[in-house]
Amino acid sequence: MPIDLTYSADVEALVERTRVFVRESVLPVEDDNRGDIAAAGGDDIRTTLQEQARDAGVFAPHAPVEYGGHGLSMSDRAPVFEEAGYSLFGPTALNIAAPDEGNVHMLAHIADPEQNARYLEPLARGVLRSAFAMTEPAPGAGSDPSALATRAAKVDGGWRINGHKHFITGADGAGFFIIMARTSGEPGQRGGATMFLAPADTPGLRVGRHIDTLDRSMIGGHCEVFFEDLFVPDEAVLGAVDRGFEFAQVRLGPARMTHVMRWLGACRRAHDVAVDYVAEREGFGSVIGNLGLAQQMVADNEIDIAATRALLVRACWELDNGGQAGNATSIAKTFAAEAIFRVVDRSIQLCGGLGVSDDLPLARLSREVRPFRIYDGPSEVHRWAIAKRTVGAARRAAAAR
Asked: FRET partner for 299 with CA separation of 20 to 30 A, picked from 81, 125, 192, 231?
């Protein structure tokens, strides 16, 4: 039986509306501000673009229908998010940018009704933004979440949180935080983490400096965040006590794949710019696109884009069928992060001096996609996890013989 890789008519229509909206309404804003969301107006431009996205019928494709979204599955999100990612500002316009998109997904799966009303609905509707606070300065949690050092101590009626986070995306201007804190055990031990919900204006929660990074398109920056005797009530627990790492898996695998979707759109734009250039630029007695070395780079870009999309489709299929898809998402994320950068880098090379200038979007696209090899788990950590699963399976098979 052949595998059906088609999308429904409704999804195809949403993809096309997204394509038109992003090119006509979002790309000009990005280009005018060279991909810098703060220069474009921060939350003011976010509000404007999201209102336009609502009018265009493309807003919040991932969010539950009852909260104003389209309720798409992971598989159906892929082509829509890719079209949104064609502009660096497209995900913000559709309310599918990190970390809000991943937080919507997680809250929809594990939050209780009261938490949904207080946090999920306004987030899904774009009324406010959010932040996911897990990463810490060394020796705290980073690529190894078991090093979690931020601690929540049980007190009457709730929990008292103390700790220091950094590289918290979207923290400046977020309406609320999802905080990962240790409720049992010691740093280096597995388990013992709990997620807590806290409004941004809660006493004891302080957003510190912006940590400057290569990318400029993520609203709210990447910030230090401090918790200083922050009190949260018992009803602020998201999921269950001591099961934070387990419940966070609901978010992490899908969020890695939506990163792939968005950055795939960005590298497609880079590829399109380069192909248009080499199809017209003349040199050495021919258009550059007719020269063998240029053709190889064009072909390699096509291969990397197609392979990324294929791995993404497989991982999303596994997620939609109820699996954790740990191996599939690690494979897709690792390959995509490196392939997408290769596509953008080749596109710069094809365009020569213009490629590294601000006359084309390629230089800023390169800056934006490079961190993807670190965000949501460095490539090396994913490779380690893939190998560990593979060797472990071989050992179990040998023991069963």
From this structure: 81
